[in-house]
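Title: Request for sanity check on Arabinogalactan endo-beta-1,4-galactanase prediction

Description:
We are preparing a figure and want to confirm that the structure record we downloaded matches what your pipeline produces today. Could someone re-run it with the sequence below and paste the raw structure tokens into this thread? We only need the token string, no images.
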Amino acid sequence: MGFSTWPYAPTVESVDATYQFMSNNGDVYSEHIDSSIPWDAWINGLPLPAEFINEIESKASRKIPNAKLTVSVSLLNSSRDELAFDFDGTIPNYTAINDAHIEDAYFEHLKYITNQLNPDYLVMAIEVNELFKNAPEKWDSYKLLMANIRARIMQEFPSLILSESVTLHNFYQPDVPDSAQYIAEIADYANSLGFVTISFYPFFKGLKTKDDFQEAFDFLHQKINKPIAFAETSHLSETLSVESLNIYILGSQYEQNEYLETLLINAQENDYKYIIWWAHRDYNELWESFPEEVKDLGKLWISTGIINEDGIEKQALSTWDLVFNK
């Protein structure tokens, strides 16, 4: 059990404190690389952007000894309907997303990150069922793309454990025209992987009680027959209000703790490989530094840490400590 390296402030001190907290309070941690991909550099053999090199080198320099590392890399943009942007805001031209130049570029991207970070687990793409939901015409090409890349990564790194993550909040009771067909397709695809990694934010689904949470877990266990890990998850500890997105969701520390307890019980009873709680601390200070155009999106997870923005422990931290220190 562990956390992602998402910091709570835009400072080196915050980053260092986050890694220290993870070292003290987990036996696994996650590097989450869900931003830009240097497509042009990979496709045309150009120098990699300094911003990308510095990001990966910073993560490598802070690698936590004696902890397992899972690395999640996003192929897709934040809307999960298209390839991720390059550092200049463009995406490469393609006929289908399994075009050879896309495959070669993304393979090189994953290979570089893996060589630099040497993870125990690699989540080769993030929240992939969202692509099937948002751009179903690209799904078959996506599956071909990842099958080819998976084979190449396995040949390059034979001991590396591979997966692609699925959002449980849009796998369970999905808002799609044909939910039975969608669920069957995602279950079949997930069960074709070595293990199944889950992204789950119950508040996106309006889940608020232990019974609500357990119904989602029961659904997951009914549909998935491979080992399970939670690559990212958390729950609100305060009410979330984002007027521009028409979002108003009640939250509380009690409800957050109820979710964490349910997660930990299911992890133990079903022998999950690992669980990653998204952010260890509320990131109000980091959020203040976000560009205006992403502030509303970035606010969605702001109160999901198990420590508040002032460094005060929440109820969920006691639950975490109790289980981790058993």
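Thanks, this matches our download. The chain has one domain: 2-324.
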